[in-house]
Amino acid sequence: MFFDFLKYYLTAGNAHRIHSPFIFELYTKVYRDFSMHPDFEAIEAVRKSLMHNRERIRIEDLGAGSRVNDAPERSVSDIARKSLQSPFWGQFFYRIIRYYDYRNVIELGTSLGITTAYLARATPEGTVYTAEGCENTLNVARSTFRTLGLDHVVPVQSDIGLVLEDLLNRAGTPDFVLFDANHRYEPTLAYFQACAARAGAHTVFVFDDIYWSAGMKKAWQDICQDPRVSLSVDFFHVGLVFFRQGVEKQHFVLK
Question: What is the pTM of this model?
Answer without folding.
Answer: 0.94
